[in-house]
Design goal:
The chain is mainly alpha-helical. It is built from six helices and no strands.
């Protein structure tokens, strides 16, 4: 009996490691693609990203939103509206809208980007699933506040 349990445990560990290895490999490939896209960005766009982050950290959500809007426009112009990096930038922009206090506008932005992610990336894409989860959490918070 102990030998059977040990064999099952070993088999489960092999499956777990193989699954983890596949997941890590997929994550590394995705990061390589994102890094490549970001390395090809114009320096001005990179500056906008850092400036939006800086303003957010300093507690200026309105300023961060304004700068992030310019970042979103620049990325959309450079990469196209359906590029995965632009979709992620739109997701982040919805977060800036939320932090600036426009709950309704943020929820609408999350819904729009989620619909586009489903269409472009598919239902099972990790970014699509994450966007759906964040939208549900933000809806709950918005409903609880009213």
């Amino acid at each position: 009996m102990a030998a059977a349990l040990l064999a099952v445990g070993c088999a489960a560990e092999v499956v777990r490691r193989r699954w983890r290895g596949d997941w890590v490999a997929r994550a590394n490939r995705e990061l390589d693609v994102r890094d490549q896209v970001l390395r090809q960005e114009a320096p001005e766009t990179v500056d906008l990203r850092f400036e939006a982050h800086r303003l957010r950290e300093l507690g200026d959500p309105a300023g961060a939103l304004e700068v992030h809007a310019r970042l979103l426009a620049a990325r959309t112009d450079a990469l196209g509206a359906e590029h995965p990096q632009v979709l992620l930038t739109r997701f982040n922009h919805a977060g800036h809208i939320w932090e600036a206090g426009d709950r309704g506008g943020a929820l609408a932005a999350y819904e729009e980007v989620l619909a586009d992610m489903v269409r472009v990336l598919g239902e099972d894409d990790p970014d699509t699933r994450w966007t759906r989860k964040v939208l549900a959490i933000r809806r709950e918070k918005a409903e609880g506040a009213s």
